[in-house]
Amino acid sequence: MDQATWKAVVDELSLSPQQTRIVELILHGFGDKRIAAELEISFSTLRSHLERIYHRLEVPGSKGLILLVLRTALARKGCPQCRQN
What we know:
The protein is built from 5 helices and no strands. By secondary structure, the protein is an all-alpha fold. The longest helix is centred in the middle third of the chain and has 15 residues, at 43-57. The chain starts with a helix and ends in a 9-residue tail after the last helix.
């Protein structure tokens, strides 16, 4: 995904800088323990961040989050049916 599309997705989803970094790492395939280590935060702090992200974006977990990000990016590129759940 190009930088302009990524910025538009982040803006549309209203992600904070920390949430943006967490989502980036999820998209790169990092597991929770590796994300916590990369961000130099505790595993429990990461879980709290993830729970808030999932709740606010109304997704059931990381797979739902990935799908939401991809749908949002595709919709930005002109795929109107991608906004549907």
